[in-house]
Structure to design on (253 residues):
């Protein structure tokens, strides 16, 4: 059986992070291993607290699941602080054979909590992004890392070019935070740009809390397809299609 490794924080509500990742992986025939980066106190409406695990605990978890060569893909989510980012970078560099890695550079929760401090953000950009196969910032994160305020599809293209030119790592910019009746995501691998455009589903109306964890879910789905042997561009396409079906199914609850 093929294996996937999830590195992420724990959201006790199950709406995001590791529990959302596990929900996505459940539909695939994959064996799962996980490393917990942080405990959070949050739910669908508010963010209460963040407690990253100790550097020692994080390092021992990584040591316990080594080597990476036994996994067919890795998904990295929230990391909490620069010390954990630093430990992960060292770990990845030591591994002689790395599987495809998807990085979701989680900076803030949907409900407003900070999930990675500034030093961690800087280290992630400088040292971690070049080590992965694909990274999946949303428009706010892509704006931060590119230095370009993204308010339109044209600016998404410009930001994708800036990010790819700077780090050479293929990027999927998730456009769900932009206003409009259509959601547009952009994949750029340095050669061609691929748009994924879907109608927006207003899940969370009629008094329900807005749907959270879609960024976690999408990056995990892509990692699952990579574990199945798909190339990055096709894994992105397959993952985005499955993600849309999942979102549409939430309307029925």
């Amino acid at each position: 059986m093929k294996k996937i490794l999830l590195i992420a924080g724990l959201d006790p509500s199950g709406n995001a992070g590791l529990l959302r990742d596990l929900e996505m992986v459940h539909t695939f025939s994959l064996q799962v291993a996980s490393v917990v980066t942080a405990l959070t106190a949050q739910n669908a409406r508010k963010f209460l607290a963040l407690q990253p695990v100790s550097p020692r605990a994080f390092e021992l978890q990584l040591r316990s699941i080594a080597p990476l060569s036994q996994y067919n893909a890795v998904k990295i989510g929230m990391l909490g602080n620069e010390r954990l980012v630093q430990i992960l970078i060292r770990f990845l560099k030591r591994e002689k054979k790395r599987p495809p890695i998807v990085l979701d550079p989680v900076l803030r929760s949907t409900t407003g909590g900070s999930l990675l401090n500034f030093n961690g953000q800087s280290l992630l950009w400088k040292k971690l992004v070049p080590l992965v196969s694909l990274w999946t910032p949303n428009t706010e994160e892509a704006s931060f890392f590119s230095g370009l305020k993204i308010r339109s599809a044209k600016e998404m293209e410009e930001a994708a070019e800036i990010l790819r030119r700077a780090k050479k790592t293929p990027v999927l910019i998730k456009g769900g935070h932009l206003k409009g009746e259509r959601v547009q995501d952009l994949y750029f691998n340095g050669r061609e740009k691929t748009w994924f455009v879907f109608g927006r589903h207003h899940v969370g109306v009629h008094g329900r809390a807005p749907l959270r964890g879609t960024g976690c879910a999408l990056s995990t789905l892509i990692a699952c397809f990579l574990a199945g042997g798909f190339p990055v561009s096709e894994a992105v396409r397959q993952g985005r299609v499955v993600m849309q079906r999942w979102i549409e199914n939430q309307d029925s609850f």
About this structure: Confidence is low (pLDDT under 50) at residues 205-209.
